[in-house]
Amino acid sequence: MQNNIQKKRVRIATRKSLLALWQAEYVKAELEKHHPGIEVELLGMSTRGDKILDTPLAKVGGKGLFVKELEVAMLENRADIAVHSMKDVPMEFPEGLGLSVICPRERPTDAFVSNRFNTLAELPQGAIVGTSSLRRQALLREQRPDLEIHDLRGNVQTRLSKLDDGQYDAIILATAGLIRLELQDRIRTELSADICLPAGGQGAVGIECRLDDHEMIELLAPLHDARTAACVTAERAMNRRLEGGCQVPIACFAVLNKAEDEVYLRGLVAKPDGTTVLRDEERGAPENAEQMGIALAERLLDAGAQEILSAVYASGNAQA
Ligand SMILES: NCc1[nH]cc(CCC(=O)O)c1CC(=O)O
Fold it and tell me: Organism's domain of life (predicted)?
């Protein structure tokens, strides 16, 4: 195939939240940097996840709540690519679509955000903490069974304004989103991965496109970060084997060492009330990231994860 790229126009499908727009603008700027003269356009869209705001996220159901409408736009050729938070991207793609790029990861941790307290340990008995993620809920309860966890929906700004209204003593948000929106001043502490292991893909941005659009795949290639991709591949393989996404009490987080020859993957499956947290880990070469994720998932299943996940699904507290 020849190397001179013909395509000069790229339409990016994106959600309209400030965080989604930041991510789409980031991809636009990167494309413009690597391909001077290219024309990049943002196509803002609402997804079901954006529209249903009054129901706890874990009960809304349906995979890919935040991505489906963007995928339809690509399949109908109204858009060329979609930019996603990897945490929200389902394990399987519609036929003809796939991830072609994973961008360099932002900080992957969760952040403790409060107007009155500096750390989780400082919270008084029975304090109210806002989060809509079963993973965060379980891991907070593991540390502090006395806390009251209340649901918290909406985009990052909405969640912060609910905190400021006094509805919660503290809330937990992804550090990456706060940094991207220049809201890092709101972070009191970053929760360590030992306490609050991140969700698979957290902090990473991915680009989905039509798999037969070879010109687009070639255009996007310079945005790919192989190091982040190795980590996210291991995390997603674990999630896929557990059939879990970000709406079940599953966490997985991989790091690559400096020599770039070893991936260290940690995973867990928790009861939503935090009384049981099954943790395990795996190390291996980046080329084996996928197999590592599967192996870790299978050990967790053997250790009792199947039972925990079946109970979560049966209670209707998670999307299938
Ligand atoms: N589920 C919503 C979502 N998806 C991605 C991020 C943060 C950015 C990222 O992880 O890349 C957030 C908000 C949050 O969890 O605080």
Answer: Bacteria
**Ligand 1 touching residue 131 (CB < 6 A):** no
In a domain, 170, yes or no: yes
Q: How far is the CA of 37 from the centre of ligand 1 (A)?
A: 32
Is 151 part of the annotated catalytic residue set?
A: no
Residue nearest to atom 13 of ligand 1 (CA): 174
Buried b (16+ CB within 10 A) or exposed e, 219-231: bbeebbbeebbbb
Give me the helix-helix angle, 18-34 and 156-164, nearest 10°.
140
Give me the CATH number covering residue 300. 3.30.160.40
- What is the pTM for the complete model shown? 0.92
Shared-domain flag, residues 185 and 304: no
* Atom 15, ligand 1: residue with shortest CA distance: 174
Distances in Å between the Cα of 214 and the Cα atoms of 1, 80, 221, 308 are 10, 11, 11, 42
Q: Assess whether the C-beta atom of 174 lies below 6 angstroms from ligand 1.
A: yes
User: Which residue segment(s) compose the domain that 95 sits in?
Assistant: 9-105+204-224
Out of 50, 54, 80, 88, the active site residue is: 88
Give the DSSP letter of residue 258: T
Q: Is the dihedral of CA 65, 11, 93, 260 positive or negative?
A: negative
Q: Could you tell me the CATH number of the domain that includes residue 66? A: 3.40.190.10
Domain presence at residue 233: no
Query: How many domains, in total, are found in the chain?
Result: 3
Within-domain flag for 319: no
Asked if the interface predicted TM-score (ipTM) of this complex is over 0.90, the answer is: yes
